[in-house]
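Thread: Newbie trying to understand structure tokens

Hi all, I'm a second-year student working on a class project, and my supervisor (Dr. K.) asked me to get a predicted structure for one chain before our next meeting. I've only ever worked with sequences, so writing a 3D structure as a token string is new to me. If someone could post the tokens and maybe explain what I'm looking at, I'd be very grateful. Here's the chain:
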Amino acid sequence: MITKAKWLSRINWNEQELIPVIAQEVGTNDVLMVAWMNREALARTVELGQAVYWSRSRKKLWHKGEESGHFQRVHEIRLDCDEDVLLLKVEQLGDLACHTGRHSCFFQKLDTTSEQPEWSEVDPVLKNPDDIYK
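---
Reply by user tm_fold:
Sure, no problem. This is what the structure looks like when written as tokens:
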């Protein structure tokens, strides 16, 4: 079984048998999102060539794009030096990676120019989430 493969045992999984995953867009190098994977999600990602994550809230595998149609084609998978974080270099199929209807989940920027720092939304909503998720 692929989830018992030697390459999977190299990873330093956390107490919940999960690893954080950074999805970075090929070409632009934009960080699109951060998610989690378990062994099965990573094995399915390798098998499909598309990102499959573990949804902590739903407690199930989540094939990115299964509801929205905004899949992520995986070009490369990297493991960090501590072997406890993955980086996926992905091609975002469809322009949206974020469930808020934005290209990236990192659309809020801390403005430190005033006396009290404030978060502001700096990237536009490209599509209404209500139109994406029925």
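A couple of things are worth pointing out once you decode it. Residues 39-48 form the longest helix (10 residues). The helical segments are 6-9, 39-48, 129-132. Feel free to ask follow-ups in this thread.
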